[in-house]
Amino acid sequence: MKRTIVAMPGDGIGKVVLPEAIRVLSAAGFEAEYVNGDIGWEFWCSEGNPLPQRTIDLLAEHRIGLFGAITSKPKNKAAEELDPSLRENGYVYYSPIVSMRQHFDLDICIRPCRTFPNNPLNFIRKSADGGFEEPVVDTVVFRQNTQGLYAGVEWTNPPRQVREALDTHPRFAAFRDVPGEDLAVSTRIFTREYCRRIVTAAFEYARQFGYRSVTVCEKPNVIRETSGMMEAEAAAVARDFPDIQLWSTNIDAQMMWLTKNPEDYGVIVAGNMFGDIVSDGFAGLVGGLGFACSANIGRDVAVFEPTHGSAPKYETLAPSIVNPIAMVLSACMMLDHIGEKERADRIRSAITAVIDEGAVRSYDMIKLAGGPDVIARGAATTQQITDAIIAKL
Ligand code: NAI
Ligand code: MG
Prior knowledge:
Layout: E1 3-10, H1 14-27, E2 32-36, H2 41-47, H3 53-62, E3 64-69, H4 75-81, H5 96-103, E4 108-114, E5 125-126, E6 132-133, E7 138-144, E8 154-156, H6 160-167, E9 184-186, H7 192-209, E10 213-218, H8 226-238, E11 245-250, H9 251-260, E12 267-270, H10 272-285, E13 293-297, E14 302-306, H11 325-337, H12 341-357, H13 382-392
Helix pairs in contact: 1-11, 1-13, 7-8, 9-10, 11-12, 12-13
Bound molecules: 1,4-dihydronicotinamide adenine dinucleotide and magnesium ion.
Protein backbone atom coordinates (compact mmCIF):
# COMPACT_ATOMS: atom_id res chain seq x y z
CA MET A 1 0.00 0.00 0.00
CA LYS A 2 1.26 3.42 -0.99
CA ARG A 3 1.86 5.74 1.97
CA THR A 4 0.79 9.34 2.07
CA ILE A 5 3.31 11.74 3.57
CA VAL A 6 2.55 15.34 4.47
CA ALA A 7 5.42 17.36 2.99
CA MET A 8 5.83 20.73 4.71
CA PRO A 9 8.71 22.63 3.10
CA GLY A 10 8.14 25.83 5.10
CA ASP A 11 10.41 28.79 4.42
CA GLY A 12 13.83 29.60 2.99
CA ILE A 13 16.06 26.58 2.47
CA GLY A 14 13.30 24.30 3.75
CA LYS A 15 11.89 24.71 0.23
CA VAL A 16 15.27 23.64 -1.17
CA VAL A 17 16.17 20.63 0.96
CA LEU A 18 12.78 18.92 1.30
CA PRO A 19 12.41 18.21 -2.46
CA GLU A 20 15.98 16.84 -2.42
CA ALA A 21 15.07 14.38 0.34
CA ILE A 22 12.03 13.27 -1.64
CA ARG A 23 14.27 12.73 -4.65
CA VAL A 24 16.47 10.40 -2.59
CA LEU A 25 13.47 8.54 -1.13
CA SER A 26 12.12 7.90 -4.63
CA ALA A 27 15.51 6.79 -5.92
CA ALA A 28 15.66 4.31 -3.04
CA GLY A 29 12.39 2.85 -4.27
CA PHE A 30 10.18 4.25 -1.52
CA GLU A 31 6.74 4.62 -3.02
CA ALA A 32 4.66 7.35 -1.49
CA GLU A 33 2.28 10.09 -2.31
CA TYR A 34 3.26 13.51 -0.97
CA VAL A 35 0.61 16.05 -0.08
CA ASN A 36 1.74 19.60 0.48
CA GLY A 37 1.22 21.10 3.95
CA ASP A 38 1.30 24.90 4.26
CA ILE A 39 3.41 26.16 7.14
CA GLY A 40 5.57 29.17 7.83
CA TRP A 41 6.04 32.88 7.53
CA GLU A 42 4.07 33.40 4.34
CA PHE A 43 0.92 32.05 6.04
CA TRP A 44 1.46 34.19 9.09
CA CYS A 45 1.66 37.29 6.87
CA SER A 46 -1.32 36.41 4.66
CA GLU A 47 -3.61 34.60 7.13
CA GLY A 48 -2.38 35.49 10.60
CA ASN A 49 -1.59 31.82 11.21
CA PRO A 50 1.73 30.14 10.38
CA LEU A 51 0.19 26.68 10.97
CA PRO A 52 -3.18 26.77 9.18
CA GLN A 53 -5.94 24.40 10.27
CA ARG A 54 -5.83 22.66 6.87
CA THR A 55 -2.26 21.54 7.61
CA ILE A 56 -3.27 20.26 11.04
CA ASP A 57 -6.09 18.33 9.34
CA LEU A 58 -3.66 16.77 6.85
CA LEU A 59 -1.33 15.65 9.63
CA ALA A 60 -4.22 14.27 11.66
CA GLU A 61 -5.33 12.26 8.63
CA HIS A 62 -1.98 10.96 7.33
CA ARG A 63 0.04 10.93 10.60
CA ILE A 64 3.49 11.21 9.04
CA GLY A 65 5.10 14.54 8.18
CA LEU A 66 8.36 15.63 6.60
CA PHE A 67 9.20 19.18 7.48
CA GLY A 68 11.87 21.55 6.13
CA ALA A 69 12.34 24.68 8.21
CA ILE A 70 10.52 27.87 9.05
CA THR A 71 11.44 31.49 9.54
CA SER A 72 10.32 33.08 12.74
CA LYS A 73 10.78 36.65 13.90
CA PRO A 74 10.25 38.53 17.16
CA LYS A 75 6.70 39.56 18.12
CA ASN A 76 6.99 43.19 16.98
CA LYS A 77 8.52 42.33 13.62
CA ALA A 78 5.79 39.73 13.13
CA ALA A 79 3.08 42.32 13.81
CA GLU A 80 4.64 44.71 11.27
CA GLU A 81 4.66 42.12 8.48
CA LEU A 82 1.09 40.95 9.01
CA ASP A 83 -1.24 41.80 6.13
CA PRO A 84 -2.74 45.25 6.83
CA SER A 85 -6.29 43.89 6.54
CA LEU A 86 -5.60 41.52 9.45
CA ARG A 87 -4.06 44.00 11.86
CA GLU A 88 -5.97 44.87 15.02
CA ASN A 89 -7.64 41.45 14.89
CA GLY A 90 -5.62 40.30 17.88
CA TYR A 91 -3.33 37.91 15.96
CA VAL A 92 -0.17 37.08 17.91
CA TYR A 93 2.74 35.23 16.27
CA TYR A 94 3.62 31.90 17.82
CA SER A 95 6.18 29.43 16.44
CA PRO A 96 4.34 26.88 14.25
CA ILE A 97 6.82 24.13 15.18
CA VAL A 98 6.16 24.55 18.85
CA SER A 99 2.41 24.69 18.09
CA MET A 100 2.65 21.51 16.02
CA ARG A 101 4.57 19.66 18.75
CA GLN A 102 2.04 20.73 21.35
CA HIS A 103 -1.08 20.17 19.24
CA PHE A 104 -0.13 16.59 18.35
CA ASP A 105 1.67 15.97 21.63
CA LEU A 106 4.90 15.07 19.81
CA ASP A 107 6.65 14.57 23.12
CA ILE A 108 9.54 12.31 22.08
CA CYS A 109 12.28 14.13 20.19
CA ILE A 110 15.18 11.99 18.92
CA ARG A 111 18.40 13.59 17.69
CA PRO A 112 21.14 11.17 16.61
CA CYS A 113 24.66 12.57 16.38
CA ARG A 114 27.02 10.16 14.61
CA THR A 115 30.44 10.57 13.09
CA PHE A 116 30.75 9.96 9.36
CA PRO A 117 34.25 8.68 8.53
CA ASN A 118 36.37 11.24 6.68
CA ASN A 119 34.01 14.17 7.27
CA PRO A 120 36.37 17.17 7.41
CA LEU A 121 34.08 18.68 10.07
CA ASN A 122 34.64 15.84 12.55
CA PHE A 123 35.83 16.79 16.02
CA ILE A 124 39.47 15.98 16.75
CA ARG A 125 41.50 16.38 19.93
CA LYS A 126 45.17 16.36 20.72
CA SER A 127 46.60 13.17 22.16
CA ALA A 128 49.24 13.03 24.90
CA ASP A 129 52.02 12.28 22.40
CA GLY A 130 51.26 15.48 20.48
CA GLY A 131 49.33 13.75 17.71
CA PHE A 132 45.60 13.88 17.07
CA GLU A 133 42.72 11.61 17.87
CA GLU A 134 39.37 11.53 16.13
CA PRO A 135 36.94 9.90 18.56
CA VAL A 136 33.95 8.20 16.97
CA VAL A 137 30.79 9.84 18.26
CA ASP A 138 27.64 7.75 18.36
CA THR A 139 25.24 9.56 20.64
CA VAL A 140 21.47 9.72 20.41
CA VAL A 141 19.75 12.46 22.39
CA PHE A 142 16.19 11.92 23.62
CA ARG A 143 14.68 15.31 24.37
CA GLN A 144 11.34 15.81 26.09
CA ASN A 145 9.68 17.95 23.46
CA THR A 146 6.53 19.51 24.90
CA GLN A 147 7.02 20.55 28.51
CA GLY A 148 9.58 22.34 30.65
CA LEU A 149 10.82 25.80 29.86
CA TYR A 150 9.45 25.72 26.31
CA ALA A 151 5.86 25.01 27.31
CA GLY A 152 5.08 28.72 27.11
CA VAL A 153 3.64 29.23 30.59
CA GLU A 154 5.26 32.57 31.31
CA TRP A 155 4.60 36.20 32.12
CA THR A 156 6.14 39.61 32.37
CA ASN A 157 4.14 41.36 35.06
CA PRO A 158 2.34 38.21 36.21
CA PRO A 159 -1.31 38.59 37.23
CA ARG A 160 -2.11 39.09 40.91
CA GLN A 161 -3.13 35.45 41.53
CA VAL A 162 0.17 34.22 40.13
CA ARG A 163 2.10 36.61 42.33
CA GLU A 164 0.12 35.51 45.33
CA ALA A 165 0.77 31.89 44.54
CA LEU A 166 4.50 32.53 44.11
CA ASP A 167 4.44 34.37 47.40
CA THR A 168 3.50 31.17 49.20
CA HIS A 169 7.03 29.92 48.48
CA PRO A 170 9.54 31.13 51.08
CA ARG A 171 12.18 31.74 48.45
CA PHE A 172 9.95 34.21 46.65
CA ALA A 173 10.63 36.67 49.49
CA ALA A 174 13.71 37.84 47.57
CA PHE A 175 11.44 39.08 44.73
CA ARG A 176 8.45 40.33 46.74
CA ASP A 177 9.20 44.03 46.30
CA VAL A 178 10.00 43.93 42.55
CA PRO A 179 7.43 45.97 40.58
CA GLY A 180 5.27 43.80 38.29
CA GLU A 181 6.54 45.29 35.04
CA ASP A 182 10.10 44.53 36.16
CA LEU A 183 9.36 40.89 36.94
CA ALA A 184 9.53 38.11 34.30
CA VAL A 185 8.59 34.52 35.13
CA SER A 186 9.03 31.51 32.81
CA THR A 187 7.88 28.27 34.37
CA ARG A 188 9.53 24.88 34.06
CA ILE A 189 6.74 22.33 34.33
CA PHE A 190 7.45 18.57 34.17
CA THR A 191 4.91 15.82 34.67
CA ARG A 192 5.72 12.33 35.88
CA GLU A 193 3.93 10.69 32.95
CA TYR A 194 5.97 12.58 30.35
CA CYS A 195 9.24 12.13 32.22
CA ARG A 196 8.52 8.44 32.23
CA ARG A 197 7.62 8.38 28.53
CA ILE A 198 10.85 10.04 27.40
CA VAL A 199 13.04 7.95 29.69
CA THR A 200 11.30 4.73 28.61
CA ALA A 201 11.75 5.66 24.94
CA ALA A 202 15.46 6.23 25.60
CA PHE A 203 15.94 2.87 27.34
CA GLU A 204 13.97 0.97 24.72
CA TYR A 205 16.09 2.52 21.99
CA ALA A 206 19.29 1.67 23.89
CA ARG A 207 18.19 -1.94 24.19
CA GLN A 208 17.07 -2.23 20.57
CA PHE A 209 20.30 -0.81 19.15
CA GLY A 210 22.78 -2.19 21.66
CA TYR A 211 23.87 0.91 23.58
CA ARG A 212 25.29 0.05 26.96
CA SER A 213 24.33 3.24 28.82
CA VAL A 214 21.58 5.81 29.16
CA THR A 215 22.67 9.13 30.66
CA VAL A 216 20.06 11.36 32.21
CA CYS A 217 21.36 14.91 31.75
CA GLU A 218 19.66 17.42 34.03
CA LYS A 219 20.65 19.44 37.12
CA PRO A 220 18.90 17.80 40.08
CA ASN A 221 21.22 19.24 42.70
CA VAL A 222 19.91 22.76 41.94
CA ILE A 223 16.63 22.33 40.04
CA ARG A 224 15.41 19.81 42.54
CA GLU A 225 11.78 19.41 41.65
CA THR A 226 11.76 19.10 37.85
CA SER A 227 15.22 17.64 37.27
CA GLY A 228 14.65 15.58 40.41
CA MET A 229 11.49 14.08 38.93
CA MET A 230 13.26 13.19 35.66
CA GLU A 231 16.02 11.53 37.64
CA ALA A 232 13.65 9.58 39.85
CA GLU A 233 11.73 8.30 36.83
CA ALA A 234 14.99 7.32 35.13
CA ALA A 235 15.96 5.30 38.19
CA ALA A 236 12.55 3.60 38.23
CA VAL A 237 12.58 2.76 34.51
CA ALA A 238 16.21 1.56 34.70
CA ARG A 239 15.10 -1.33 36.94
CA ASP A 240 13.42 -2.92 33.91
CA PHE A 241 16.68 -2.66 31.91
CA PRO A 242 19.32 -4.33 34.06
CA ASP A 243 21.53 -4.84 30.99
CA ILE A 244 21.86 -1.07 30.47
CA GLN A 245 23.74 1.22 32.83
CA LEU A 246 22.05 4.39 34.05
CA TRP A 247 24.41 7.36 34.28
CA SER A 248 23.57 10.83 35.47
CA THR A 249 25.29 14.08 34.51
CA ASN A 250 24.60 17.77 35.09
CA ILE A 251 23.99 19.75 31.91
CA ASP A 252 26.87 22.16 32.54
CA ALA A 253 29.40 19.43 33.22
CA GLN A 254 28.03 17.41 30.30
CA MET A 255 28.78 20.31 27.93
CA MET A 256 32.37 20.23 29.16
CA TRP A 257 32.72 16.44 28.97
CA LEU A 258 31.30 16.15 25.50
CA THR A 259 34.38 17.75 24.02
CA LYS A 260 36.74 15.76 26.26
CA ASN A 261 35.35 12.26 25.85
CA PRO A 262 32.30 12.26 23.57
CA GLU A 263 32.84 8.59 22.68
CA ASP A 264 31.75 7.63 26.20
CA TYR A 265 28.12 8.65 25.71
CA GLY A 266 25.49 6.48 24.06
CA VAL A 267 21.89 7.45 24.69
CA ILE A 268 21.25 10.72 26.52
CA VAL A 269 17.87 11.78 27.90
CA ALA A 270 16.94 15.28 29.04
CA GLY A 271 14.12 17.76 29.47
CA ASN A 272 13.17 20.18 26.72
CA MET A 273 15.74 22.94 27.08
CA PHE A 274 18.69 20.85 28.24
CA GLY A 275 17.93 18.34 25.49
CA ASP A 276 18.00 21.18 22.97
CA ILE A 277 21.35 22.37 24.30
CA VAL A 278 23.09 19.03 24.64
CA SER A 279 21.93 17.84 21.20
CA ASP A 280 23.34 20.96 19.55
CA GLY A 281 26.57 20.37 21.46
CA PHE A 282 26.93 16.82 20.13
CA ALA A 283 25.81 17.88 16.64
CA GLY A 284 28.75 20.27 16.55
CA LEU A 285 31.15 17.34 16.94
CA VAL A 286 29.84 15.55 13.87
CA GLY A 287 29.49 18.32 11.30
CA GLY A 288 26.91 20.73 12.68
CA LEU A 289 23.73 21.95 11.07
CA GLY A 290 24.31 20.36 7.68
CA PHE A 291 24.15 16.92 9.35
CA ALA A 292 21.79 17.31 12.32
CA CYS A 293 18.54 15.38 11.87
CA SER A 294 15.60 14.83 14.18
CA ALA A 295 12.32 13.04 14.80
CA ASN A 296 9.33 14.36 16.75
CA ILE A 297 7.21 11.40 17.77
CA GLY A 298 3.84 11.35 19.49
CA ARG A 299 1.25 8.66 20.11
CA ASP A 300 -0.46 9.15 16.73
CA VAL A 301 1.59 11.55 14.63
CA ALA A 302 5.30 11.83 13.86
CA VAL A 303 7.17 14.63 12.08
CA PHE A 304 10.76 14.47 10.85
CA GLU A 305 12.93 17.56 10.32
CA PRO A 306 16.51 18.76 10.14
CA THR A 307 17.37 20.86 13.18
CA HIS A 308 18.64 23.77 11.09
CA GLY A 309 16.48 26.78 10.33
CA SER A 310 15.51 28.49 7.07
CA ALA A 311 18.92 30.20 6.51
CA PRO A 312 17.18 33.08 4.66
CA LYS A 313 20.41 34.46 3.24
CA TYR A 314 20.73 31.35 1.05
CA GLU A 315 17.10 31.08 0.03
CA THR A 316 17.44 32.74 -3.35
CA LEU A 317 20.93 31.57 -4.29
CA ALA A 318 20.80 29.76 -7.64
CA PRO A 319 22.17 27.17 -7.75
CA SER A 320 21.61 26.39 -4.11
CA ILE A 321 24.65 25.69 -1.93
CA VAL A 322 23.18 24.31 1.28
CA ASN A 323 23.83 20.81 2.51
CA PRO A 324 20.79 18.54 2.05
CA ILE A 325 22.21 15.73 4.22
CA ALA A 326 20.47 16.79 7.47
CA MET A 327 17.13 16.70 5.66
CA VAL A 328 17.88 13.37 3.96
CA LEU A 329 18.94 11.84 7.30
CA SER A 330 15.66 13.09 8.80
CA ALA A 331 13.81 11.34 5.98
CA CYS A 332 15.75 8.16 6.92
CA MET A 333 14.44 8.52 10.47
CA MET A 334 10.96 8.62 8.97
CA LEU A 335 11.67 5.34 7.15
CA ASP A 336 12.94 3.80 10.42
CA HIS A 337 9.71 4.86 12.11
CA ILE A 338 7.41 3.31 9.51
CA GLY A 339 9.21 -0.03 9.42
CA GLU A 340 11.46 0.66 6.43
CA LYS A 341 14.74 0.47 8.32
CA GLU A 342 16.52 -1.49 5.62
CA ARG A 343 15.79 1.15 3.05
CA ALA A 344 16.91 3.84 5.50
CA ASP A 345 20.17 1.98 6.12
CA ARG A 346 20.75 1.78 2.40
CA ILE A 347 20.40 5.57 2.08
CA ARG A 348 22.62 6.13 5.13
CA SER A 349 25.27 3.88 3.57
CA ALA A 350 25.11 5.92 0.38
CA ILE A 351 25.58 9.14 2.36
CA THR A 352 28.47 7.56 4.27
CA ALA A 353 30.13 6.57 0.99
CA VAL A 354 29.74 10.04 -0.53
CA ILE A 355 31.25 11.70 2.53
CA ASP A 356 34.06 9.16 2.77
CA GLU A 357 34.97 9.55 -0.89
CA GLY A 358 35.15 13.32 -0.50
CA ALA A 359 34.73 14.17 -4.19
CA VAL A 360 31.42 16.00 -3.70
CA ARG A 361 31.32 18.34 -0.73
CA SER A 362 29.09 21.25 0.22
CA TYR A 363 30.60 24.60 1.24
CA ASP A 364 30.27 23.85 4.96
CA MET A 365 32.29 20.64 4.50
CA ILE A 366 35.16 22.48 2.87
CA LYS A 367 34.94 25.23 5.48
CA LEU A 368 34.06 28.16 3.27
CA ALA A 369 31.92 31.10 4.30
CA GLY A 370 28.64 30.64 2.41
CA GLY A 371 27.98 32.79 -0.65
CA PRO A 372 27.53 32.68 -4.42
CA ASP A 373 31.29 32.24 -4.98
CA VAL A 374 31.63 28.89 -3.19
CA ILE A 375 30.85 26.86 -6.31
CA ALA A 376 33.77 28.45 -8.15
CA ARG A 377 35.89 27.63 -5.11
CA GLY A 378 35.17 23.90 -5.27
CA ALA A 379 31.93 23.43 -3.33
CA ALA A 380 29.22 21.20 -4.74
CA THR A 381 25.69 22.47 -5.22
CA THR A 382 22.82 21.08 -3.18
CA GLN A 383 21.59 19.14 -6.21
CA GLN A 384 25.03 17.66 -6.91
CA ILE A 385 25.19 16.27 -3.39
CA THR A 386 21.79 14.66 -3.83
CA ASP A 387 22.86 13.29 -7.20
CA ALA A 388 25.99 11.79 -5.64
CA ILE A 389 23.91 10.07 -2.93
CA ILE A 390 21.51 8.73 -5.55
CA ALA A 391 24.41 7.47 -7.67
CA LYS A 392 25.68 5.45 -4.67
CA LEU A 393 22.23 3.94 -4.19
P1 NAI B 1 19.80 28.62 10.54
O1 NAI B 1 19.90 27.22 11.01
O2 NAI B 1 18.75 28.92 9.55
O3 NAI B 1 21.18 29.07 9.91
C1 NAI B 1 22.35 29.27 10.64
C2 NAI B 1 23.56 29.10 9.73
O4 NAI B 1 23.82 27.72 9.64
C3 NAI B 1 23.30 29.54 8.29
O5 NAI B 1 23.70 30.83 8.05
C4 NAI B 1 24.16 28.59 7.52
O6 NAI B 1 25.48 29.11 7.48
C5 NAI B 1 24.19 27.35 8.34
N1 NAI B 1 23.28 26.35 7.82
C6 NAI B 1 22.01 26.06 8.22
N2 NAI B 1 21.52 25.03 7.54
C7 NAI B 1 22.48 24.64 6.69
C8 NAI B 1 22.59 23.62 5.70
N3 NAI B 1 21.57 22.76 5.46
N4 NAI B 1 23.73 23.52 5.00
C9 NAI B 1 24.74 24.34 5.22
N5 NAI B 1 24.73 25.33 6.13
C10 NAI B 1 23.61 25.47 6.87
O7 NAI B 1 19.60 29.54 11.84
P2 NAI B 1 19.42 31.12 11.99
O8 NAI B 1 20.20 31.85 10.93
O9 NAI B 1 19.67 31.41 13.39
O10 NAI B 1 17.88 31.36 11.73
C11 NAI B 1 17.32 31.65 10.47
C12 NAI B 1 15.81 31.51 10.58
O11 NAI B 1 15.47 30.15 10.84
C13 NAI B 1 15.22 32.33 11.72
O12 NAI B 1 14.01 32.90 11.28
C14 NAI B 1 14.96 31.29 12.80
O13 NAI B 1 13.90 31.65 13.63
C15 NAI B 1 14.63 30.07 11.98
N6 NAI B 1 14.91 28.77 12.63
C16 NAI B 1 14.05 27.77 12.36
C17 NAI B 1 14.28 26.50 12.84
C18 NAI B 1 13.38 25.42 12.40
O14 NAI B 1 12.64 25.58 11.46
N7 NAI B 1 13.43 24.26 13.02
C19 NAI B 1 15.42 26.20 13.71
C20 NAI B 1 16.33 27.32 13.87
C21 NAI B 1 16.05 28.56 13.37
MG1 MG C 1 18.02 24.14 18.89
